[in-house]
From TrEMBL, chains A, B:
SUPFAM superfamilies: lambda repressor-like DNA-binding domains, Periplasmic binding protein-like I. Keywords: DNA-binding, Transcription, Transcription regulation. SMART domains: HTH_LACI. InterPro entries: HTH_LacI, LacI/GalR-like_sensor, Lambda_DNA-bd_dom_sf, Peripla_BP_I. Residues 1-53 form the HTH lacI-type domain. This is LacI family transcriptional regulator. It holds the Pfam family Peripla_BP_3. The keyword Transcription applies.
Amino acid sequence: MADVAAEAHVSVKTVSRVVNHEPGVRPDTAERVRAVIERLGFRRHDGARLMRQGRTFTIALVVEDLANPFYSQVGAAVEREARIRQHQLITASAEGSPSRERAVIEALVNRRVDGIVVVPADESASSDAVLEASHTPIVYMDRPVRGTPRDTILSDNHGGIRSAVEHLVAHGHRNIAFYGDDPAFWTARQRRDAFVATHEGLGLPGSPRVSMGPHSSGSVQETLVPWSRGPEPITAVITGNNRITLAVLLALREQRLPLSLVGFDDFELAALIDPPVTVVHQDPAAMGQKAAQQLFARLLGDESPAQTVVMPTRLIVRASGLRRAALNR
Amino acid sequence: MADVAAEAHVSVKTVSRVVNHEPGVRPDTAERVRAVIERLGFRRHDGARLMRQGRTFTIALVVEDLANPFYSQVGAAVEREARIRQHQLITASAEGSPSRERAVIEALVNRRVDGIVVVPADESASSDAVLEASHTPIVYMDRPVRGTPRDTILSDNHGGIRSAVEHLVAHGHRNIAFYGDDPAFWTARQRRDAFVATHEGLGLPGSPRVSMGPHSSGSVQETLVPWSRGPEPITAVITGNNRITLAVLLALREQRLPLSLVGFDDFELAALIDPPVTVVHQDPAAMGQKAAQQLFARLLGDESPAQTVVMPTRLIVRASGLRRAALNR
DNA sequence: CGGTGGTCAGACAACGCTGTCATGCCGGCA
DNA sequence: TGCCGGCATGACAGCGTTGTCTGACCACCG
């Protein structure tokens, strides 16, 4: 900038004014400065600019694994909201490790990002003190965190599972099993509890048959086979997420069991699988958008108490939820 | 930092030394400073630090759409490489628009990111001048760009298509159609040309039947039906990417045509579709990793001429490539 | 003709840190 | 005792901007 100023016989401040389209520069002066800028290939150094202004126009997204479709859709939505507001997005993976997540968040705070969206690795609020001290706004997604109340965007796990159970029951199923992921995950427990509660609420016979993961096709079969052959055989399965749905599909295929299936989480090409899989759809893009919007509201000075938003889910009915019902007719 | 210095009765420089674990500070002084840092909740401002040092320890990834599984896998790999090297990753979407891409890249250069990985929207090298002037290293991925030679990481489109054709021919197919994406895409043209070349190289009968997109299930059927019913009916189809594979699958299903199929691009659950889809697998994670590694080599001072790396593809044989061959036996 | 107000431009400090150089102190040695 | 070298520490400038304040100049008005 100093070079430009010297070359154009003006002060750096005037160059600054021209670069930032500030008023109060005579058109011919501005034109002369612009010409020099062009000739010298000058570009404003945003790092210095932002440092001066105390804001970075940068937000961050911390997830477990960017390659996971759920997170990548969230990422795309958050990036979009950021771009619209002239912010940039730093994405970081914590790979599911709370300590790494802590390190990542501290690094982001050190960079003075304006705000952070996090899908927390666990519920321990491990970076609470740092965030508190730095006043960095944060929005949690998908899973809540203990400690200071924070803005949190969740999926309606309970409603989603309930709609799955009700759908199956409406099609004549009475004996339904639930396969969930590792109960270390908050969402896995939520969905399991929702299943049990709905099972009891609807007065389905026997005690709920629940198997929690981590699951592989093999581990699924260990319970799937006895449950579908014993007394009161199950005629349908509900799965707690994507990964489990896959494991169950493989197990069903291997055992040639024509059970109904409703999976939590939609996935690409669910419609093309045989049979097309009925799913509880949650909308990662909408969740990410909502999270980013909430974050930007905070950046604009919204001081209202932290709020938790529960995003609705939607049952997408495809053939897999109907199969056995057809046989029962 | 000044606050800490005052409180600890030392100079800011000493605080800086402690924060950065520089030698030459007496242990008791360091301890005193650390205590104050702790008490005051001081955190080093990395923005200022990096500005002083002239590097940002940040790289950027520019893609079309972060939600696309291909790009999100690339993103995860690049982020991983960045994290390993203590860098952060800014991700940005250009949504396929060259002008937006240009704007995005200029913004990144203004931020003085240390380097950029780009999946370019077109071949126009629209930001060449900016990059040249700023000396920002850049690595292109998936598609080459005209102009100044740059490091470029590509998939072996030709080899991939050839392996697909050869696979089908080995299973007795002679009449094979190719469905490609919009020829505006470099990769779409590459794969089409590879198909035509292989078709001729192997001396398959007639002229190659090729239909370029953009495609929907409907547009595919317009050619699929005549080609599979006319004289010399096709018995197999090769698709130019993911999206087209999906369209063809739907078309085949709708028309109840039991043709063989080999798709370019693997996709989640390809194994669970009926029939399981044989694909030419390209490895986005490996490509992203390679691109990042190349970028970091440049950052470390590698001045060798720009190089183009072609990453191998791998044919994953599943049932869809064999179906008609079985009927032919 | 002096005062007033507006327009354009520049000087300067500051954002928070670190590289460079200077300083003070101490022990050891001739 | 005087000198030297090494260690711990500090003063200062500068990274590239921008906010604030000041100043020069001109036109207009009473």
